[in-house]
């Protein structure tokens, strides 16, 4: 039986559970429309997964709410990348006990990356008996079946650790935005960086079919989406394992060539796989935003080897400089880990030198957080958190000067922006193609539209402008 047939059969089974749940959830809610709250922690891929969960809940005739007091179902979609994210989840799950006591019929569920870790599942079993549903990243397509089992038996339902290597197409989606949207092109990761839990909780790389992605992009554009972000743990690996001959550069080109007035973004790019072909296509097409998120993590070759990043500083600078030479006004952003086990202050100084040379628009910076099950969690780590925090302070001062210089250089210039949200009364936040926020005084009806603005004032991270 082909994979497509298995997928089709599996989805039909879930649709049957969805239909049965409509009446069951209505009765549990006392004859009123049941309400569900889905809270997301972590990365954009988690946001995209939550949109599928919300889509399935809507198929069960559930309304969506952000208020836990009126919810009949509460789902937390969790992140395992850093310890802080896990602590937040446990703290907020603990607070749900009071809601469960007040409304015994409340169904509390936990899903996502944290649930794929054995020690986390064990802690939930032991410490959170009022959590009735637990499922991992590989079981999202079975959400209706798992929910049905939980509400009909009254017993805790747990499904985790079942990576069948397939991609399940055709799941319903409730998109959170009406003009900005996420489009997953692949799942999982094969890189196994020594600090990273992602391959262990999201499985190996699986790419969606080229034609399926293009069709979804076309439907989003037809629905009025102005910005689409292609998602993958490493988009540059796209196409590996597919029968059809394709790669990320060709997917990027074909998506950008769809008719319509829209912007195209993507994340994340791994430097070892970032190709000059991809950069050339970015340079050729004005719909592809001139923003490249290219995580370097550390400026020391010695530490990069311990991280299993499989590139050198020289290789990173080669691709970064090529991109800057090809794409006018390119915005480069990156991730940096400070205080990786065994990293010395001399290694850290090399990170600062790299930051000064490249002049990133902005950085996502993290003090190293050990993850159970990763090799780096077993490495010797002689430096204290206090020392690492001091290094982080140095890094932030360097980056602040670079960002201030870049923003100051934008004053007096004109840019096309996408107006995103209301910041406060009479003030809207917009974003340039190179991913810098611009504050505008404008009416709320401009939200979701492209506008041309002139930059009138610069601060370290945010610009102010006026519509021209």
Structure summarized in a few sentences:
With 468 residues, the chain is α/β, with parallel strands linked by helices. It has 14 helices and 19 strands. The model is unreliable at 1-5 (pLDDT under 50).
CATH architecture of the largest domain: 3-Layer(aba) Sandwich
* Gross geometry: globular
Distance between the termini: 59 Å
Helical fraction: 25-40%
Question: How large is the share of residues in beta strands?
Answer: 15-25%
With strands numbered from the N-terminus, the spatial order across the biggest sheet is 2-1-3-4-5-6
The CATH homologous superfamily of the largest domain: Methylthiotransferase, N-terminal domain
The helix count comes to 14
CATH class (first level) name of the largest domain: Alpha Beta
Unreliable sequence segments: 1-5
Rounded to an integer in angstroms, the radius of gyration calculated over CA atoms is 23 Å
The number of distinct structural domains comes to 4
Kindly name the structural category.
Answer: alpha/beta
pLDDT average, as an integer?
95
Count of DSSP strands: 19
Could you name the CATH topology of the largest domain?
A: Rossmann fold
3D structure, described in words:
The chain is of the alpha/beta class. It has 4 domains: 3-159, Methylthiotransferase, N-terminal domain (Rossmann fold, 3-Layer(aba) Sandwich), CATH 3.40.50.12160; 177-289, 2-Layer Sandwich (Transcription Regulator spoIIAA), CATH 3.30.750; 292-408, Transcription Regulator spoIIAA; 414-467, OB fold (Dihydrolipoamide Acetyltransferase, E2P) (Beta Barrel), CATH 2.40.50.140. The chain is built from 14 helices and 19 strands. Strands 2-1-3-4-5-6 form a 6-stranded parallel sheet, sandwiched between helices. A hairpin with a 3-residue loop joins strand 18 (450-458) and strand 19. The longest helix has 26 residues, at 3-28. It is globular and about 60 Å long. The relative contact order is 0.08.
């Amino acid at each position: 039986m082909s994979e497509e047939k298995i997928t089709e059969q599996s989805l039909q089974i879930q649709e049957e559970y969805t239909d049965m749940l409509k009446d069951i959830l209505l009765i549990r809610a006392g004859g009123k429309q049941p309400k569900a709250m889905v809270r997301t922690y972590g990365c954009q891929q988690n946001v995209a997964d939550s949109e599928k969960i919300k889509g399935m809940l809507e198929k069960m005739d559930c309304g969506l709410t952000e208020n836990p007091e009126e919810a009949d179902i509460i789902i937390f979609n969790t992140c395992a990348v850093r310890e802080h994210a896990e602590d937040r989840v446990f703290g907020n799950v603990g607070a749900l006990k009071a809601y469960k006591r007040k409304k015994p019929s409340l169904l509390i569920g936990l899903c996502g990356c944290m649930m794929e870790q054995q020690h986390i599942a064990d802690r939930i079993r032991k410490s959170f008996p009022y959590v009735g549903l637990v499922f991992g990243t590989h079981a999202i397509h079975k959400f209706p079946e798992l929910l049905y089992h939980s509400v009909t038996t009254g017993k805790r339902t747990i499904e985790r650790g079942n990576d069948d290597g397939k991609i399940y197409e055709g799941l319903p989606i409730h998109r959170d935005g009406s003009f900005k949207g996420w489009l997953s092109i692949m799942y999982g990761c094969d890189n196994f960086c020594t600090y990273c839990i992602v391959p262990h909780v999201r499985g190996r790389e699986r790419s969606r079919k080229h034609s399926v992605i293009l069709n979804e992009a076309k439907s989003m554009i037809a629905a009025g989406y102005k910005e689409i972000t292609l998602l993958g743990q490493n988009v540059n690996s796209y196409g590996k394992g597919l029968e059809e001959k394709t790669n990320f550069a060709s997917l990027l080109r074909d998506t950008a060539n769809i008719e319509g007035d829209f912007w195209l973004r993507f994340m994340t790019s791994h430097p070892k796989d970032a190709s000059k072909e991809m950069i050339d296509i970015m340079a050729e097409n004005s719909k592809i935003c001139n923003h490249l998120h290219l995580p370097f993590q550390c400026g020391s070759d010695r530490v990069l080897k311990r991280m299993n990043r499989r590139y050198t500083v020289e290789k990173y600078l080669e691709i970064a400089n090529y991109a800057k030479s090809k794409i006018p006004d390119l915005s480069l952003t990156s991730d940096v880990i400070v205080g990786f086990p065994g990293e010395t202050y001399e290694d850290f100084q090399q990170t600062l030198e790299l930051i000064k040379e490249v002049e990133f628009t902005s950085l996502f910076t993290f003090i190293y957080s050990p993850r159970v099950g990763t090799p780096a969690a077993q490495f010797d780590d002689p430096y204290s958190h206090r020392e690492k925090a001091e290094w982080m302070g140095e890094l932030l001062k360097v980056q602040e000067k670079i960002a201030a210089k870049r923003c100051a250089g934008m004053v007096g210039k004109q840019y096309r922006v996408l107006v995103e949200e209301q910041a406060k009364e009479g003030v809207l936040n917009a974003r340039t193609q190179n991913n810098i926020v611009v504050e505008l005084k404008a009416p709320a009806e401009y939200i979701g539209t492209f506008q041309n603005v002139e930059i009138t004032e610069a601060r370290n991270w945010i610009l102010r402008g006026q519509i021209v």
